Amino acid sequence: MAGVVSIDPRDRTPIYAQLERGFRAAIAAGRLGPGDQLPTVRQLAVDLRVNANTVARVSAELERAGVLETRRGVGSFVTAPPAHARSPHEHDRRLRAFATKVLADATDLGLALEELVAELERHG
């Protein structure tokens, strides 16, 4: 699992955020799929060299988000398909970046915003 999800100690992003982002990215990329079982919290903590409470916190958050399911006495399993694994914040960030690029390209081509919107509506 340490190969699927990793922690960069030099990254200033909190470890729990790196871990959550790593799991979501692994699912979105297909390295983890629906039904795949994760190692135990303790095993992940040992593999990644992080506190077990941090792993448990991320696991609980991903469960609340519908990305993982924990079955008492059995383990944690991936439940989200790749399309649903990304966080809403990541989706919004990508959408903003895409819209910014499209608007910049339209400006470079001399297209008016109204023309662009009208064309998008014709295709939508």
SSE inventory with pairings:
Elements (H helix, E strand, L loop, with lengths): L14 H14 L12 H8 L3 H13 L3 E4 L3 E4 L3 H4 L2 H21 L4 H11 L1
Antiparallel strand pairs: 1-2
Helix pairs in contact: 1-3, 2-3
3D structure, described in words:
With 124 residues, this protein is mainly alpha-helical. It folds into two domains: 15-82, Winged helix-like DNA-binding domain superfamily/Winged helix DNA-binding domain (Arc Repressor Mutant, subunit A), CATH 1.10.10; 88-123, no CATH class. It is 57% helix and 6% strand. It has helices spanning 15-28, 41-48, 52-64, 82-85, 88-108, 113-123, and strands spanning 68-71, 75-78. Strands 1-2 form a two-stranded antiparallel sheet. Strand 1 (68-71) and strand 2 form a beta hairpin. Helix 1 (15-28) crosses helix 3 (52-64) and helix 2 crosses helix 3. The radius of gyration is 19 Å and the shape is elongated. The protein starts with 14 loop residues before the first helix and ends with a helix. The relative contact order is 0.13.
Task: Tag the structure with descriptive keywords.
single chain; 124 residues; mainly alpha; Arc Repressor Mutant, subunit A; 2 domains; two-stranded antiparallel sheet; 6 helices; 57% helix
